[in-house]
Write a structure and sequence with these properties.
The complex is a heterodimer of chains A (304) and B (335). With 304 residues, chain A is mainly alpha-helical. Helix content of chain A is 72%, strand content 2%. In chain A, a hairpin with a 5-residue loop joins strand 1 and strand 2. Chain B is an all-alpha fold. In chain B, strands 1-2 form a two-stranded antiparallel sheet. The two termini of chain B are 39 Å apart. The chains are: A mainly alpha (304), B mainly alpha (335). At the A-B interface, helix 3, helix 4, helix 9 and helix 13 of A face helix 6, helix 12 and helix 14 of B.
Chain lengths: 304, 335
């Protein structure tokens, strides 16, 4: 029972952080119908930003969220103005391969600058702390803080998208770019803003994740695929959809935990022999495939 | 007979194209005796392999307009079938290769049926997902060596062994692959003039119109996907015998899938010569950049950075590739 409970808690906590990871992807996709392969790479940059600034200033990386957000926003706008703008004119395959090129570029620049070794945070006010909430469930403080802060930032972005004029303009651009242009909305600037917000949120997520996850230049692709799965499940372009889908995907990444629970509860030997932990992320990819085939619009899809 | 005639008939190309193609062919035939280094030879084999991959991708991605980014799974199926059959049961390449193609095509039907209900981005990402699922499974499957992969030890064989395709010198591999290469060109040349080829181009332009003309869109896509798959699987089998050491990471990773699509796109998707031009530019560039910058200067990954910049520039400014530029120039000259 303890295993089941702590697995569910771990899944939910990780899911809340993942919501922040996927938020940027769904905003960018919603506003301009472009699939960004470099998404995980921006997360990696956020992780390095959090880690390095924390090491340089001696503060906890949780306080580095604004720095990460700023770096991400600038990087996003820069990417849009310098590269994505030209990509949008071309056919879909050019967009896919173009953002893939961006991913290769960022990944290998990181490799060149930071080296290939894993880097982890060893100090900080929360590292190593944990809460025992009873019934054998132990929550690491870093994960709890990351989940809580990510929910707060998620709510902030949701309010920005739904309760401000700026957010309305973004949504209008997403729904009908030409119509929005006739209404006097500077769609070009809105696209750049969407990239800024999209990349800014994912770098914030990176600064949160680096508290409990070591970083190397190759970490991006995994998160890109997880983010794709979340966005597909929640519906491409849907912000609340991304949140609930992220909780589900967080649970899916904990399938090995559920598997262990079944193995111990029913004492099945053959189950113990399956290398479930190595297949951890396969379930995410499989879930993505099944979701796309069964319900291409996702749970909360509003486009297409 | 008609099909054969069609395959060998290149008369609808301008004479300059055929002259260049002929010169390239003569160069390829004579390449081993020109006295290039073994590094150049290995690069040339890579070039032939990737142009075959690209030609396969070009059927579904270029003529059909379906962006498939999961071709690496079929490289893996082909390579693993050949390697497993060779190591465990000593079955020659010429038997295991068709078996590999059958397995790959069978798998492509199973996943192709649901896949082609999707369109555009959704399709592209779903193909990546299937490829990664298969890769993860191969990484834990002990029968195929899990993450360590398989190694064909050449000691058991007496090179040159034409049945098992185990050679000491690259020259043999080169000529066998060149044979496949020419067959591939003839096949694509037939394909683009076949009924399926015309149906696909119609689907690419407008799916609804295609459907209203009585084309079974779903089935046409699945069939073409199988054709692309068999191309990739054959080269995958060859890859197993040539490299002799295969693991999931370098046969089935996303990078391979993307490289395959990139060859065709850089050269010009949807044209006969496109994938060959693309591979001819990218593969030597990649090898030599790695050799010069990566090894000599000691900057890790600088080759891929330059590579990535080229990808970004091409996709932003000339998405129709080199062939697109050539055709634009020709049109300007005519007017």
């Amino acid at each position: 029972m303890e295993i089941l409970l702590s697995t569910i808690v771990a899944g939910l906590l990780f899911g809340m952080v993942l919501a922040m990871v996927a938020l940027g992807l769904t905003i960018i996709f919603g506003v301009m119908d472009i699939v960004n392969f470099a998404h995980g790479e921006f997360l990696m940059i956020g992780m390095y930003t959090g880690l390095l600034t924390a090491k340089a200033t001696g503060l906890d990386p949780l306080f580095m969220m604004p720095v990460a957000a700023g770096v991400g926003f600038l990087l996003g706008v820069l990417c849009y103005v310098g590269f994505i703008k030209f990509l949008l004119r071309g056919p879909m395959i050019a967009q896919l391969l173009g953002t893939f090129g961006l991913m290769l570029l960022l990944r290998n620049l990181a490799l060149l600058i930071f080296g290939s070794e894993d880097r982890a945070l060893h100090h900080g006010i929360l590292v190593g702390q944990s809460f025992d909430i009873g019934m054998g469930v132990i929550i690491p403080a870093t994960k709890l803080a990351a989940a809580a802060l990510s929910v707060v930032s998620f709510l902030g972005v949701w309010l920005l998208m739904n309760r401000t004029k700026l957010g309305k303009a973004l949504t209008a651009t997403a729904l009908n770019a030409q119509g929005a242009r006739y209404m006097g909305i500077p769609t070009e600037r809105m696209n750049a803003l969407a990239w800024g917000i999209g990349v800014g949120t994912v770098t914030v997520a990176g600064a949160l994740i680096v508290n409990f996850w070591s970083v190397n230049p190759f970490i991006g692709l995994l998160f890109t695929m997880i983010a794709f799965a979340i966005v597909a499940l929640g519906g491409f372009g849907s912000v609340p959809g991304a949140f609930f889908a992220a909780l589900v995907v967080g649970m899916i990444t904990e399938i090995p935990g559920f598997w262990d629970f079944m193995t111990y509860t029913f004492e099945l030997d053959w189950m113990a022999n399956v290398p479930m932990t190595s297949l951890k992320y396969m379930w995410v990819y499989l879930a993505y495939f099944v979701i796309m085939v069964v319900r291409p619009r996702g749970l909360f899809g509003w486009k297409h | 007979m008609e099909a054969l005639k069609n395959a060998l008939d290149f008369s609808d190309f301008p004479r300059i194209d055929l002259t260049v193609a002929g010169l390239v062919l003569i160069f390829l035939l004579a390449f081993p005796v020109l006295g290039f280094s073994s590094f150049a030879m290995a690069t040339m084999i890579q070039f032939l392999m990737f142009s075959l991959y690209g030609m396969g991708w070009n059927t579904i991605g270029g003529y059909g307009g379906q962006v498939d980014l999961g071709k690496a799974q079929y490289v893996g199926i082909g390579a693993y079938t050949t390697a497993v059959m060779l190591i465990r049961w000593d079955i020659p390449f010429w038997v295991s290769m068709p078996v590999g193609v059958c397995l790959a095509v069978g798998w492509s039907f199973i996943i192709g049926y649901p896949l082609f209900r999707l369109k555009g981005h959704y399709f592209a990402i779903a193909t990546i997902a299937t490829s990664l699922v298969l890769k993860d499974l191969f990484e834990v499957w002990n029968f195929v060596g899990a993450a360590r992969g398989l190694e064909i030890s050449p000691i058991k064989f007496h090179p040159p062994d034409f049945l098992h395709l185990i050679f000491k010198e690259d020259v043999y591999y080169f000529y066998i692959l060149l044979g496949f290469f020419l067959l591939g060109i003839f096949y694509i040349n037939w394909f683009r003039k076949s009924r399926l080829g015309f149906q696909l181009r119609c689907i690419k332009d407008n799916e609804d119109v295609a459907r209203s003309l009585g084309i079974n869109v779903h089935w046409a896509k699945i069939k073409t996907y199988a054709i692309a798959t068999s191309f990739v699987s054959v080269v995958g089998s060859f890859h197993a015998c040539y490299i002799k050491n295969i693991e999931p990471e370098d046969t089935m990773s996303l990078t391979i899938s993307i490289l395959i699509a990139l060859m065709a796109m850089l050269g010009g998707a949807g044209s006969l010569w496109g994938p060959i031009i693309g591979a001819g530019i990218l593969i030597p560039l990649k090898s030599y950049l790695k050799e010069w910058l990566g090894a000599t200067v000691g900057l890790v990954g600088i080759d891929i950075i330059i590579y990535a910049l080229i990808i970004m520039l091409v996709s932003a400014f000339e998405p129709r590739g080199v062939w697109g530029i050539i055709e634009k120039l020709r049109r300007r000259k005519r007017n």
